[in-house]
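Listing S7. Sequence submitted for prediction.
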Amino acid sequence: MRAYLYDNLDTDCREPHELQPLSPVSIKELEQSGVLYWQLDLDKDKCKEQVDNICKERNYMNRDEITVSKDGLGDLFDQKIKTFFTEHLHEDEEIRAIIDGSGYFDIRDKQDRWVRIEVQAGDLIVLPAGIYHRFTLDMNNYLRAIRLFKEDPVWTPLNRPCDENPYRKSYLETLVAH
């Protein structure tokens, strides 16, 4: 996993969009925004064991698998990619274990700048409830991930602005503490 400031250019969102000069963002800085990260073993059995342990530790009760690709989403591909890339938040954590392929999660940092997080096979990322973010594939147009959930699988995006949302307010309070 690697993270850096986003350049905000109005070009294909699947491009790297690295702000020049390159402005890397460390895992510690991501943690200050509430983002958690684990590097998973690519061996299938070891990866499953690691994911199971994280689920126990963080009380994730449910999971499913998603393939984000033209083949995986069929006629809904363009619509889903557009929806994923619209700035939004969730009232639950967003947890993704990338098991194949690659893509980008963009989050808003404390200064409301976009930080691009490049994920690939072996990365597990947790975005906190209430953080503004978005997702897109990279130019490979393929990602397969395990989605983890604390309760029943729910994926309800609340598009920005929703600053009065209690989960957003709670998230912002955690930033003040850092």
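Caption to Listing S7: primary sequence and predicted structure tokens for the chain studied. The chain has a mean pLDDT of 95. The longest helix spans residues 44-58.
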